[in-house]
């Protein structure tokens, strides 16, 4: 969804014409419980033409496909003796079994829980997302980097 009715809140080129009241009302149209069920939030900024046509920093589709297939293969192996087929299907008890995190990541999660005021659902969704990030990084253990990336995708509060 757009950040505001006109779509330009936070845009570096075009000025948003919406008042803070209008922006707040617009963003609250989607209820908290519904937002809690969305796993990944991404803010997509305006991209300059030069960056769009520059191939030097591009990860090609074949490489991305290969990394995703490798991660799916790790998940298939992990879940071969269960009814699960992917990380998204994990229940709370499965998360305890399959989402092992190191001590630093545990500390980060505790801090995030206190500062962001996660619900239990958001806590579990974040761990499942961190498990997927770790799979893409070929890691059995969820570390601070994996959890930090998952936390970035979960935050959707726009400060007006």
Short structural description:
This protein is mostly helical. Helices cover 52% and strands 0% of the residues. It is globular, with a radius of gyration of 18 Å.
- The string of secondary-structure elements, in order, is HHHHHHHH
pLDDT < 50 stretches: none
Number of helices: 8
Structural class: mainly alpha
| C-alpha Rg (nearest Å) | 18 Å
Instruction: Report, as a whole number of angstroms, the end-to-end distance.
Output: 16 Å
CATH class of the domain at 53-154: Mainly Alpha
Strand content: under 5%
Task: Kindly report the CATH topology of the domain at 53-154.
Answer: Helicase, Ruva Protein, domain 3
The residue-averaged pLDDT reads 90
The largest pleated sheet is described as: none
């Amino acid at each position: 969804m757009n950040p505001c009715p006109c779509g330009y809140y936070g845009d570096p080129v075009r000025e948003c014409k919406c008042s803070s009241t209008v922006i707040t009302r617009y963003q609250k149209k989607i209820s908290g419980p519904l937002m809690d069920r969305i796993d990944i939030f991404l803010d997509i900024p305006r991209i300059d033409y030069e960056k769009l046509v520059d191939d030097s920093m591009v990860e090609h589709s074949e490489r991305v496909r290969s990394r995703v297939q490798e991660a799916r293969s790790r998940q298939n192996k992990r879940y071969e003796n269960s009814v699960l087929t992917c990380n998204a299907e994990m229940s709370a008890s499965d998360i305890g079994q399959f989402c092992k995190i190191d001590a630093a990541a545990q500390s980060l999660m505790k801090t995030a829980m206190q500062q962001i005021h996660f619900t239990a659902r958001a806590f579990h969704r974040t761990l499942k997302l961190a498990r997927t990030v770790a799979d893409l990084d070929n890691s059995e253990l969820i570390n601070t980097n994996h959890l930090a990336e998952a936390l970035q995708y979960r935050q959707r509060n726009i400060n007006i």
